[in-house]
Design a protein that fits this description.
Elements: E1 7-11, H1 16-27, E2 31-36, H2 39-46, E3 51-54, H3 60-74, E4 79-82, H4 97-125, E5 128-133, H5 137-140, H6 146-166, E6 171-178, H7 184-187, H8 191-199, H9 209-220, E7 231-234
Parallel strand pairs: 1-2, 1-4, 2-3, 4-5, 5-6, 6-7
This protein binds 1,4-dihydronicotinamide adenine dinucleotide.
């Protein structure tokens, strides 16, 4: 039970990849604080002794409040997984300011707010693992996703800088870049588009939230002693 005595904060854990990550950590004994925006789905977590916080991580006060709740509840934070993310796709020419700002605020600033709030306690305890969920789109770009690609590429740079900034205090910071993972986020995609992506995946299948959760679990565990500042793809070989 490698996560016993570990406290993990996972954002966007009411469904999809975030939910799978939180379940994977909990299965190995981690104490959890999860956040999301869907109160009904957060209730499912409460029943298994998990501390839940309904919070919009794009709001700096709410992000700080989430970290405070974790520290008040468990006394420490060992693992922070910045998973919450959104898309607002559209071509640049017609992209409203709101679609640009909402995506940047949630996907990039949200991670900044949470790391800023959590880092002090990690520095004091001289240990911690931070995993930021980026995307292969942050590496390759994608037409119709300038906002999303900028936010996910931003997370990769953010991860590298923070890894350098905190390494001497025993904090390891990494990013995970999923490819095409079957969740609510990708369900909206047209069948034709999904088929075209599938053709490009060498392993011949789309990914599952558990494929991502297994990697996050490793990166956030004490078995990861020497990997920091990296972005690791979980994409079936989509971007080789
Ligand atoms: P999803 O849409 O199924 O779930 C997103 C979760 O984040 C939900 O629980 C939602 O409530 C929460 N969330 C969104 N905005 C929030 C906010 N402002 N405050 C608090 N919670 C918020 O998405 P999915 O597919 O599970 O994606 C999770 C992460 O993985 C995202 O960062 C996404 O960009 C990334 N990703 C997903 C891929 C995919 O193929 N599904 C591929 C690459 C990256």
């Amino acid at each position: 039970m490698s996560m016993i005595d570990k406290v993990a904060v996972v954002t966007g854990a009411t469904r999809g990849i975030g939910r799978a990550i939180a379940e994977r950590l909990q299965a190995d004994g981690a104490s959890l604080v999860v956040c999301g925006r869907d109160a009904a789905r957060l209730k499912d977590w409460e029943q298994s002794g998990v501390v839940t916080v309904k919070a919009d991580i794009a709001d700096p006060d709410a992000a700080a409040g989430l970290v405070k709740t974790a520290l008040d509840s468990w006394g420490r934070i060992d693992i922070l997984v910045n998973n919450a993310g959104i898309t607002r796709d559209g071509f640049l020419m017609r992209m409203p300011d709101n679609d640009w700002n909402d995506v940047l605020r949630t996907n990039l600033s949200g991670a900044f707010y949470l790391c800023r709030a959590a880092i002090r306690s990690m520095m004091k305890q001289r240990s911690g693992h931070i995993v930021n969920i980026s995307s292969v789109i942050g590496v390759t770009g994608n037409a119709g996703q300038t906002n999303y690609a900028a936010s996910k590429a931003g997370l990769i740079g953010f991860t590298k800088a923070l890894a350098r900034e905190t390494a001497q205090r025993g904090i390891l910071v990494n990013a995970v870049a999923p490819g095409y993972i079957e969740t609510d986020m990708t369900e909206a995609m047209a069948d034709k588009h999904r088929e075209a992506i599938l053709q490009q995946i060498p392993l011949g299948r789309t990914g599952t939230p558990q494929d991502v959760a297994d990697l996050v679990h490793f990166l956030a565990s004490d078995r990861n002693r020497y990997i920091t500042g990296q972005t690791i793809h979980v994409d079936g070989g989509l971007v080789i």
